[in-house]
UniProtKB/TrEMBL annotation:
Species name: Vanilla planifolia (Vanilla)
Coiled-coil stretches noted in the UniProt entry, renumbered to this chain: none
Family annotation (Gene3D superfamilies): Ankyrin repeat-containing domain
Domain of life: Eukaryota
SUPFAM superfamilies for the chain: Ankyrin repeat
Keyword vocabulary terms for this entry: ANK repeat
Protein name: Uncharacterized protein
ANK repeat residues: 28-48
UniProt cross-references to Pfam families, sorted A to Z: Ank_2
Amino acid sequence: MAVKGNNVDIVLVLLKPDSSIVYIEENKGNTPLHIATRKGRPDVSETLRYLEEEKLVSKSVGKR
């Protein structure tokens, strides 16, 4: 709902305890980023992309 409603603040609150939920797919196989992009929610899409990139960077840095 937060993604569909284009509410970045709510998205951030939901992701704060566990940002890995960014990768969870709904029953049709779409992630929150897929939904935000399809619904034309640029602010949420950009936030989700940033969070995904940060998560990937922190994983790669932790492996060094």
